[in-house]
Amino acid sequence: RVQLVESGGGSVQAGGSLRISCAASGYTANLNCMGWFRQAPGKEREGIAAVHISGGSPYYADSVKGRFTISIDNAKNMVYLQMNRLKPEDTAMYYCVGGTMVADRTLAIEYDYWGQGTQVTVSS
Known about the structure:
Radius of gyration: 13 Å
Strand content: over 45%
Structural class: mainly beta
Helix content: under 10%
Low-confidence stretches: none
Mean pLDDT: 96
Largest sheet: 7 strands, mixed
Shape: globular
Distance between the termini: 40 Å
């Protein structure tokens, strides 16, 4: 089993930056993809970034493309999401996800493991 623990959320003003982190532990060797989803109150869950651990181009949702960057430190079993030029509409609970056989990185059902989430609030 894999445990995912997010950290680094908080409040920031619009235009600011924030980096959230995810620590993976347990049997991480079988993971093939890591990513981030978010969900705002009253809205559907949205997959915003994901990357295959073996490499290749990351996936970004159109809503964050050019502003957010996902990165992985395999040696430390860490996943990061650097968020720049934040907007009030980025306010949401952010979840770290991991999957063992992810084909479509945009689909929540593809991911086997989910963290508890970290709140990001962007004020105007």
